[in-house]
Design goal:
globular; single chain; mainly beta; 7-stranded antiparallel beta sheet; 1 helix
Length: 95
């Protein structure tokens, strides 16, 4: 598992890209919108977005945001979804 954190300014966009690993994106401040060609998912501090390996997507933050990324090997099957999905985050465990 790889872990990283990033601070983003309001309105910042991370262009279309994909990863060779699965990603779990958690926002401890602000709001994160993830878009693919088919749909959009939004997460605030009580939610995270799961992005399966190989999924083309882009991000946009709303408000000053702190985004935390966890990466998991593509062969690790933690969620069976082939598309991004929003998951609940236990705020007690996230702090």
């Amino acid at each position: 598992m790889r872990r990283r954190g990033h601070a983003h300014l309001a309105g910042e966009v991370i262009g279309r890209h994909q990863h060779g690993c699965h990603q779990l994106l958690y926002v401890s401040a602000g709001v994160l919108a993830v878009q693919t060609g088919e749909a959009s998912w939004v997460a605030s501090s009580a939610r995270a977005v799961w992005i399966p390996a190989g999924t083309w997507h882009r991000h946009r933050v709303h408000g000053h945001s702190s985004v935390h990324t966890l990466g998991f090997a593509a062969h690790d099957v933690l969620l069976r979804s082939r598309t991004p999905v929003v998951v609940a985050v236990d705020l007690w465990c996230a702090s």
